[in-house]
C-alpha cells in the first residue's frame, strides 16, 4: 500500500547493497536492514508504545527502526538507569512491550513487561508498511530533569525529519558520508543524530560500541568522513594526539568533527586544531527541541560558539520580562519555535503549558548572548549557571572558558553561592593540571578579571580531583554543592 507521506528513510527501499550500519564486525546493507527491521515491524502490530533496551548494539538500531516503520513510538531506556527512575519511566510511558537483544539480561523492574527479542533476520524481504503521518509520535525520550522525576518528551516524526534535513543543509551531509561515533543510543545525540541521521541521508554509520581513540583512528583511516562526540571524548582525543601520529593523521583527513551535549573547553579546541589542522565544530540542541543551532560546514568554527540557527528554526534571546534583548552582549534566555519541537510532556499538561509562551515559543532555560555575526554563545543554564552578583547577570560558561585558558587548570566548573553583600558570589571548582602545585585563588581571580571583567572573577576557589559528570559528559553542578 502506498503512502501519501514521504518516507523517513527512503533508502530502505532503494539502497540495495550499500552499507547502512556497522557495529564492530557486524554490519547490514540497506536491503538487509529493511528486511530485518521490516519483519520486526510487522510483529509489533498495534502496540501503544514499545520500550527499547538501548545497549550500544546492532539490535538497538534495528529495534528502533522497526518501531519507526510500524508507526509505534519508541521509548529508549538507558541500561544504567537506577531501579526507581526506571520504574517511573515504565509506569509513565506504559509500553506494550520491551524490545531487547537476545540474551540481554533485563532488570527486575521490567519483569512485568512482555519481552520481544530483536532477532536480526535478513533472510526474507517484506513489504514495508505505509509511512505514518508526520505528526505521529516517533519517540518518548525522558529528560534528566534537575527537579522531580524525568519527564517524557514526545517527539513527532516531523521533528526528526526537520532536524536531520536542517543538518544536511548546515553540514553538507550526503550519502557519501560515513559517520563514526561511540555515543550511547538512549539519547538524542547518539540515536537520532548518530544512527538515524546517516540512514536519513542514505549514508553509513559505524558505531564503536565503546569509545576509544584507537577505534576513531581506525575508522577515520578506513573511509569514515565524520566524527560525533561529547567533550569528554574530545578531551581524550586531545590528550592522545601527542603520542599517536596515526590518530593525528586520521583526524586531519576527516571532513567534519562535531562535538555536542556540553561545551567543549577552549584548550581542547586549540590542541586538536594545532595538531591536526581541523577545527571541531559545535551545535546546540535539547531533548525537547532536537537541534536548534550549528556551526555550518562552510562557517567559521570559533571555540565557545554553537553557530547560527538551523534552517526552519526561529530563535530569540529574551530578558527577564520576556522581551527580546536589545544589546548583543546582554545575557538572556534562548527561546525557539519551529518544526523541530516536541509536542508535549507525556501525561504532564501542566509542565507542557509552563514550557511555552502564549505565542508558542519554547523556553529552553539556556542563557546566551548573540555575537556580532549572529552566532550564539551559550553561557549556562538559567537554573544553575546564571549568577546574579553585585547587580550583574553573569553566565558561568564564559568564566569556565576563561579558567580553562589558564595552563594550571585541567577542568573547571563555576557556580554561584549566596552572599550577604553581593547577592551571590562566584565559586570556581578546579581540577588542577598538577595537583601538587595548583594555581592559587588570587592568580586565578586575576586571570579571569584580565580576560573578562573584574566583577566576573571568582571569589572562592575549591579544588577537586575530578568533576562529577553524567553519561553525556555534562558536569552535574548540583552534585558539587551536595
TrEMBL record:
Pfam families reported for this sequence: AMP-binding, AMP-binding_C
Family as reported in the entry's similarity comment: Belongs to the ATP-dependent AMP-binding enzyme family.
SUPFAM superfamilies noted in UniProt: Acetyl-CoA synthetase-like (SSF56801)
Protein name, per record: Acyl-CoA synthetase
Domain AMP-binding enzyme C-terminal intervals: 398-474
Organism: Streptomyces monticola
Alphabetical list of PANTHER family matching this protein: ACYL-COA SYNTHETASE, ACYL-COA SYNTHETASE FAMILY MEMBER 3
Lineage: Bacteria, Bacillati, Actinomycetota, Actinomycetes, Kitasatosporales
Domain AMP-dependent synthetase/ligase: 16-346
Amino acid at each position: 500500500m502506498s503512502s501519501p507521506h514521504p518516507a523517513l528513510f527512503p533508502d530502505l527501499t532503494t539502497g540495495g547493497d550499500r552499507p547502512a550500519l556497522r557495529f564492530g564486525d557486524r554490519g547490514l546493507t540497506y536491503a538487509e536492514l529493511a528486511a530485518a527491521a521490516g519483519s520486526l515491524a510487522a510483529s509489533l502490530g498495534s502496540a501503544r508504545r514499545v520500550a527499547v533496551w538501548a545497549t550500544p548494539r546492532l539490535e538497538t538500531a534495528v529495534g528502533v527502526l522497526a518501531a519507526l516503520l510500524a508507526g509505534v513510538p519508541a521509548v529508549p531506556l538507558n541500561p544504567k538507569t537506577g531501579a526507581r527512575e526506571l520504574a517511573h519511566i515504565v509506569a509513565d510511558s506504559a509500553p506494550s512491550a520491551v524490545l531487547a537483544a537476545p540474551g540481554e539480561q533485563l532488570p527486575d523492574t521490567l519483569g512485568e513487561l512482555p519481552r520481544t527479542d530483536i532477532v536480526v533476520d535478513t533472510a526474507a524481504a517484506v513489504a514495508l508498511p505505509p509511512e505514518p503521518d508526520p505528526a505521529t509520535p516517533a519517540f518518548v525520550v525522558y529528560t534528566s530533569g534537575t527537579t522531580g522525576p524525568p519527564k517524557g518528551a514526545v517527539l513527532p516524526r516531523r521533528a526528526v525529519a526537520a532536524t536531520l534535513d536542517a543538518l544536511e543543509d548546515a553540514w553538507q551531509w550526503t550519502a557519501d558520508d560515513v559517520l563514526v561515533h561511540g555515543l550511547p543510543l538512549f539519547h538524542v545525540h547518539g540515536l537520532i543524530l548518530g544512527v538515524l541521521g546517516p540512514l536519513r541521508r542514505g549514508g553509513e554509520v559505524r558505531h564503536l560500541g565503546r569509545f576509544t581513540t584507537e577505534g576513531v583512528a581506525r575508522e577515520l583511516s578506513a573511509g569514515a568522513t565524520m566524527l560525533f562526540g561529547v567533550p569528554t571524548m574530545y578531551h581524550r582525543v586531545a590528550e592522545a594526539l601527542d603520542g599517536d601520529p596515526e590518530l593525528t593523521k586520521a583526524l586531519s583527513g576527516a571532513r567534519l568533527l562535531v562535538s555536542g551535549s556540553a561545551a567543549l573547553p577552549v584548550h581542547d579546541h586549540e590542541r586538536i586544531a594545532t595538531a591536526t589542522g581541523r577545527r571541531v565544530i559545535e551545535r546546540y540542541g535539547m531533548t525537547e527541541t532536537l537541534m536548534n543551532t550549528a556551526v555550518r560546514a562552510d562557517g567559521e568554527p570559533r571555540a565557545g560558539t554553537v553557530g547560527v540557527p538551523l534552517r526552519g528554526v526561529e530563535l530569540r534571546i529574551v530578558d527577564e520580562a520576556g522581551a527580546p534583548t536589545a544589546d548583543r552582549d546582554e545575557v538572556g534566555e534562548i527561546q525557539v519555535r519551529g518544526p523541530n519541537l516536541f509536542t508535549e510532556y507525556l501525561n504532564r499538561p501542566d509542565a507542557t503549558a509552563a514550557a511555552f509562551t502564549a505565542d508558542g515559543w519554547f523556553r529552553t532555560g539556556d542563557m546566551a548572548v548573540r555575537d556580532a555575526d549572529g552566532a550564539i554563545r551559550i553561557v549556562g543554564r538559567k537554573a544553575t549557571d546564571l549568577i546574579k552578583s553585585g547587580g550583574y547577570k553573569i553566565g558561568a560558561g564564559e568564566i569556565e572558558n576563561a579558567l580553562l585558558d589558564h595552563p594550571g587548570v585541567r577542568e573547571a566548573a563555576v557556580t554561584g553561592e549566596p552572599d550577604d553583600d553581593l547577592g551571590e558570589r562566584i565559586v570556581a571548582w578546579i581540577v588542577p593540571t598538577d595537583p601538587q602545585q595548583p594555581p592559587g585563588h588570587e592568580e586565578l581571580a586575576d586571570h579571569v578579571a584580565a580576560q573578562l571583567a573584574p566583577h566576573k572573577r571568582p571569589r572562592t576557589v575549591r579544588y577537586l580531583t575530578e568533576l562529577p559528570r553524567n553519561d553525556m559528559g555534562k558536569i552535574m553542578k548540583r552534585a558539587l554543592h551536595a
